[in-house]
Inverse folding.
């Protein structure tokens, strides 16, 4: 497993913070830090962990859903998608 460095957004970067955050979480998924089926922390907890606004995390998780990397199950949470599985049960 490759270790992903902590999240840091360069204020000089042209990327939006939510895109940089989504890229960082994607890197953690690809490195195996966040395994398929694992439940992600609540968005408010992630905002605190990453030192960003709650809405930034919301936009980043939407971006990750759009990329097909996570799925949200209403009332249960947000989970890393098992890409080796043929199930497509997004909510």
């Amino acid at each position: 497993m490759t270790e992903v460095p902590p999240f840091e957004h360069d204020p000089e970067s042209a990327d939006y913070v939510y895109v940089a955050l989504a890229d960082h979480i994607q890197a953690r998924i690809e490195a195996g830090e966040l395994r398929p089926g694992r439940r992600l922390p609540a968005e408010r907890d992630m905002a605190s962990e990453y030192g960003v606004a709650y809405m930034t995390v919301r936009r980043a998780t939407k971006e990750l859903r759009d990329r097909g990397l996570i799925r949200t199950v209403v009332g249960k949470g947000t989970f890393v998608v098992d890409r080796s599985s043929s199930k497509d049960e997004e909510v």
The beta strands are 70-73, 77-80.
